[in-house]
Amino acid sequence: MRRGWLCGLLIVACGGGTDPDGGAIDAGRTDGGALDAGDASGLDAGADAAPGDGGAGGDAGPVAVPSCASHAFMHDGVRRGYILCVPDPMPAGALPAVLGFHGGGGRATAWRNTLPWEETASREGFVMVFMQGCRDGETDCAAPTGSYQWNVGKPGEPSGVDDQGYTLAVLDRLSSVHGLTIDASRVFGTGHSLGGIFLYSMRCDHPDVFRAIGPISSPPSDGTCTPSGDTSIYHVHGAADPNVPFDTGCCSRAQQSPANAAYLPACDALPRCFNPTNWWPPVRDGVHPFADVIGLEEMATTALGCAATRTPVPGAPECSAYDGCRAGVAVEECLVEGVGHGLAAIDAAFDVREHLWSRFRTH
Question: Which among 20, 52, 132, 328 has the fewest CB atoms less than 10 Å away?
């Protein structure tokens, strides 16, 4: 498992930052309480529940509500945490699972506050896990009020944080610790900003883990990606995103400053990233003056057998689907007009949960 690179620079400060279109970026919710050590008996006694709006799976019977609890465990010498939400009552049989990854500088409680996926999970009958990142040098990355990153494999930014191993360990704990029966063929992932970039890295290094992923405002940035596997991709992006411009990518201030050792003349033609310490490749082709990475189009055409052409998606004017993909897989990109990088603003304009679950449930 590769553990070599980290995007140590923030895309956004999720604990109270705002994007240029006024949308809160993972504004922090801190009602999750201190993460506990987790036990072998399943969900903690302190689980919270909220009223649901429908029964799981559409079957007659009690109306399911989300039951959520925080957990922590030791991984690679670091205390790591997550929030697990299950429908109550639990549907019969093996359940799908969705893992959600917060943006850079965020935390699990903030992701849950902005996109309460547990409501969708209780209505549709799947398990939801709000994941939490870490930082180099930290020994406790389970605090519900911290500010955390993901190791995304970005060229030039090394890290020793084993976020991929943590993700695999959480998936294992769903059955080994919490006693859940998970349908391993229906595990899905979604993430905003750095969280979505991490999902692209997971797709590169562990192509058999997720059946489909839904990155939001996230350019593929893994410097060692070799596309493979059958993971479908449903990419969502604000068309006016200044943090990670979809078509062009962006350069840092240093890369656009002739007096700086990091200066790259080709960056003069590109926009400066909203966070001027960052650089990001364009989503579709991944070509950047600092480093080329495998973009969304190459993932589609190399791993999934798609053509490089795209067709508008009926009923979803923001979206286009890559043509001719292998049976059972799909690649879509959705550009939401009039919004920037902020997760709340994108969701208000597009209903991210409804869109992504409508795609995930087809697998």
Answer: 328
pLDDT in tens, 249-267: 999 999 999 999 999 999 9
DSSP 72-108: EEEETTEEEEEEEEEEESPPSS-EEEEEEEPPTTB-H
Class assignment of domain 65-360?
alpha beta
Residue 48: the pLDDT is 54
Q: What angle do CA 79, 81, 85 make, to 5 degrees?
A: 160
335: alpha, beta or left, given left = phi > 0 and alpha = psi -120 to 50?
Answer: beta
pTM here is 0.84
Domain residue limits, the chain: 65-360
pLDDT for residue 60: 56
For 253, counting Cβ atoms within 10 Å of its Cβ (0-12 exposed, 13-18 middle, 19+ buried), the class is: middle
Residue 266, helix vs strand vs coil: helix
* 48 neighbors 110 (Cβ within 8 angstroms): no
Task: Answer yes or no: is pLDDT of 54 > 90.
Answer: no
